[in-house]
Amino acid sequence: MYIKDDEINKYFNEPNWKVAHNLFQHNTISNMSVIKDGQIYQIVGSTNVNGKIDTATIQVDTGGHILEFNCDCNHCKPNELACGHIGAILLKFYGLEASDLPYSFNQKGNYADQLQALQAKKEAAHLKEQANLTFSLIEQYKNQHRLHQLQLNQHIHLIPQVKSTFNRLSLSYKIANDRSYTIKNLNTFIQNIKANEIVEYGNALVTDHNSKAFDSSSLKQIRFIKEYFHLKDDDRSIRITSDNIDDFFLTHYDNLDININFTTIDLQNFILEIQKDEDYTTIKYKEPDGITIIGHQYIYYFDHYTLNRYSKECSDALRPLLTHLENNSLTIPNNELPHFSKYIIDSVVPYVEFTGDDIDEYLPMDISLLIYVDLNNNNELSVTLDYRDDQGNTILENPKDLVLPLKLDGVIQTLQKYLEYDEITQMYYLYNEEDIYDCSNEEIFIA
Question: CB of 3 within 8 A of CB of 66?
Fold first, then answer.
């Protein structure tokens, strides 16, 4: 008989296969029977080791594939890991010829009868399964026939329901006509939409899920369910997360049936605590009482059945910082504070409340800039910059050592685009007449 080497490697580990060879060589097989049933060999065998008898059943097809196996010892995992007893029986099976079948070895019990009884049991189970399937199909067709006799409802709409539990939001739906019914399985609902399946939700609602039966608001919600059902909280609800909240807001904000309100206000309810030590400054985020969700486009806050969306400007300013601070505080080396203040604090300060140290200490210096332009008789243009503090006093430090406000960066970039800077005079020069014309048309030089 033939068994593929790959099958042995698949179901036996090295220790069990060594045990199999040892059992086979010591003639521990006490009983074994083999019959051929179509393309399958049914094998039953027992080993006797010092009076301990272990019995195994195995199925092998004519192509050398092991289909099923089981042994009553503790070392076998049926159809996953074969034990040494099964291996020993397979080694004996391997040595048989087709002419040996049906095969019976030292049979103390009638193993052929056991195999036939096993086949009869399987056949009975198969017939029972087929009878159950037949009954199920009959009931399915009876129900389908009954549903086709019912009058379909039109003007159906979905009612979304938002639920807040354990600091997260989930979305479920009811389907309604004159009465509403909970959609218990959103995946089944979507499959019914695809197949236009007739379903009787209750005495007052029968629909074939045709898109024409739903109002426009419901069609938007059906699209949302199709796209985000993979984020399900359970069979009847979708979890609202950072991945779908932008779309959820746009899909549902004008829905008159939903059980929450929608607003678009920069609430300024985010609190950042800032504390400066000798070498580092620490910023911590104090979460508000409600639920904050950072979407891909906007930031949202849910509390008291109201979902608020912050403005795009606020969301863009806060998103990178809050995304980090939601999980960890931020420790900033003090030598990086000037640039941190310029690019981050100055951007977020209109939208958050700072506690701890006085925030004014961290805001960029309020610098104004006076530009003096001179064009001499040789058509050489020179520009002098006069930096002033908030008191109007000239700042004498080297301009390159100053951390300028963002509003002045564009001015300096324009100057550097056209003019050459002289470190000694700390002035900008331009000698080409064509470049002078282009530069003079820039907004910074227009009175």
Answer: yes
